[in-house]
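Many introductory courses stop at the sequence. We go one step further.
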Amino acid sequence: MERGGPYPDSMVRLIDEFARLPGIGRRSAERLAFHVLKSDRESAMALARAIQEVKTHVRHCSICYNLADRDPCPICADPKRDHSTILVVEQPKDLISLEQTGMYRGGYHVLMGHLAPLEGIEPEDLTVHVLLRRVDEAQANAGGAAVKEVIFGLSPNLEGDGTVLYLAEQLKSRGVTLSRLARGLPSGSQIEYASKAVLADAIVGRQGLD
C-alpha cells in the first residue's frame, strides 16, 4: 500500500504486517488493524507484549524440541511420565493435539517436519540425529531414562509414511520396540485435524512395526 493514501503511515505499516500472516488477505488485515485501533490502549499493549514475549521467551526444548518457555519443557521435566516411551510427531501442534486426548503419558519427540527429498528436506534438516541420540544414550533422554519403545505419530500420508520407513530403518537395530498409531486416522489426513476421540483410539490401538 502506497504512503500518502487514505491511512496514516502507522496504520499502513500495521496493515502490511497483518497481511504477511498466513491466510490473511488485505481486507482481513485492514479489519484487524481497525480492531487494534478501536481497542483500548491496555488491550492493544497487551497484544504487543504477548507478541514480544513469544519471540523473547519461547524456544524449542533441547530434549524433545517441543515449544516451551523453559528448558527442559514441562513434559520432559515431569517425573511422573514414562520417558522410556517416545511418541514421534512432525510438529509441536501435533504434540498438542495428542496431549489433549489425555490417553498418553510418555515422552515425545518433535521432528520439525517430514522427509520430502523433492523439496530438498533431508534427514539432516530435521531433528533425527537428536532422536537417535536419545535412543542411544539414556543421559540424553528426559529423566535419564533408557528408551524402550518408539511410537510413530506422523500423519498417515505419503510424506509421513516415507519418514516412518526411514526412521524404522535407522532404529530397528537399536533394540527398541517400534510401533505406530493405529490406522483409525484417515489415510492422507494430518494429525492436527483429527478429533480427540480418533487420536485416543489411535494411541490405544497402536500397532507394532515388523
